[in-house]
Design goal:
- This protein is of the alpha/beta class.
- The chain is about 30% helix and about 20% strand.
- It folds into 2 domains: about 40-145, Rossmann fold (3-Layer(aba) Sandwich); about 160-260, Rossmann fold (3-Layer(aba) Sandwich), CATH 3.40.50.980.
- It is globular, with a radius of gyration of 17 Å.
Length: about 260
Amino acid sequence: MSETPAQLWRALVSADPTRPFVTSYDDSGARVELSRTTFDNWVAKTANMLVDGFGVQPGDATALALPVHWQSLVWVVSCWSVGAEAVPSPRGSVAPGAAFAVADADRLDEAVDTGADEVFGTSLHPLGLPLRHVPDMVVDYSVEVRGHGDHFAAYAIDPAAPALRTDRPRTGAEVAALGRERAQEWGLTGEDRIAVLLAADAPLSALGPSLDLLSAALASGAPLILTPPDTDDLAGRLRMEKATVVTAPEGEEPDFPGVRPL
């Protein structure tokens, strides 16, 4: 039977809710670690907001004009949880033609100009603080999401329905299957910790055409460590985070003692 990415996520949370899922650093060195439970709370709140607050339906396209960040990963998994199609935007722009859009502060006007039915803005603050300025016709995600429940009543998602549109549309079954293939190909297990070296403005597509790094993490249970590559003492940071695997999708292949490159 075909799987969906939402099923992979639910299985992870059920297996060990206390384990870390993503640790995220910004350019200032601020660190945020989210366990599976905490990440799932954000997913549940976002999914409830989308369905109950704004009427998102399975198959609705949602443009994600966000860089790789713990909040953008929340949005991807939330889209998959409600059956919406996640549409990552290129660096510095907003994918057109989507029913819904979420954007960082620098792309809010462009997101409104796409004609999306609803536009959400997020500050990407490490602690999820509100936007400093909210333009007309924009919903401040960080404010709106907090009013929604942290338990989402999951429902069946059609594995053959569109789940992701990057270089081409992909179904949920394709995304989940590729996640398992990549996890096996890369030799990932739940004991690994994957360091992903990306600049702060790196688009979600840097994770792979099928968001391979995210889907492989969902399939294997290996936590993600998101960090800029040009930080001081990066090797020390990877040691502290106990990284076992490292990749730099937009840079040269990294070489750190004791850490296996993908």
